[in-house]
Amino acid sequence: MKKISLVAIVLLACTLSVDAAGPRTLTHSEPAAATEVLDLDSGIGDVKITAREGIDDIAIEVQLTPRRGGFFSSKRQAEQAVEAASLRTISKGHRLVLRIDPPADEDRRFEERWIIEIPAHIRLTLDHGVGDVVIRGIAAGLEIESGVGDVDVQALEGDVTIALGVGTAVVRAPASAYASAEGAGGVGNARLTVLGKRIESGGFVGHSASWTGDGSFQIEVSVGVGDAVITLD
Questions:
Q1: Count of structural domains, the chain
Q2: Which domain holds residue 210?
Q3: What is the pTM of this model?
Q4: pLDDT tens figures, 187-202
Q5: In this structure, is residue 49 part of a structural domain?
Q6: The pLDDT value given to residue 104
Q7: Cα(67)–Cα(204) distance, rounded to whole angstroms?
Q8: Mean pLDDT of all residues in the chain?
Q9: Whole-angstrom distance, CA of residue 11 vs CA of residue 121
Q10: What is the DSSP string of 65-123?
Q11: N or C: where does the chain have the smaller number of CB atoms within 10 Å of the terminal CB?
């Protein structure tokens, strides 16, 4: 999990206020031939990542919007934080790491809205704080750890692992590609549907549901407070 504790990010999600000042947009693009894993470290805000066949570059756009951190923080301080921020890309072997500098903490004065396109062969890892996450067309697998917000994933194949603190996690994938799927909700429900057939969840407080198939990959979804929803077609 990120540097922010689960309790802290729940409080942040409840108290955020976005200033009217205009956002700042940062962009970056680079060839993806040497990249096998994209590693995104994001703070507060939404993330949308789309994997596509037939593209050779990683295209990144992140919009930073000033916000006040509390009653005693100023609009100008939030604007200065946005002006000082930078998009950092770090290559580590076949891994590309993305983040906004300075790193996220409880005092960050802006929200991030990421829009990223990657080639289909790239695997994704995401460490996220507060906000919604949408992933489309992923074919090389993904691992997501998120604090608060909804997670919505469409996978074509590849292992899928999601650990969400508070919210709803939804995964849709082809049944033929997967050897197993398991969903678990600590305070909430686990809903697993395979080829139109609902697999009932078990448990008194925490609910879980599992399935085994003939494919090659695995899906594991766990939610602390909220629902885990897996649909295999």
A1: 1
A2: 6-232
A3: 0.85
A4: 888 999 999 999 877 6
A5: yes
A6: 62
A7: 41
A8: 87
A9: 37
A10: EEEE-STT--HHHHHHHHHH-EEEEEEETTEEEEEEESPP-TT--EEEEEEEEEETT-E
A11: C
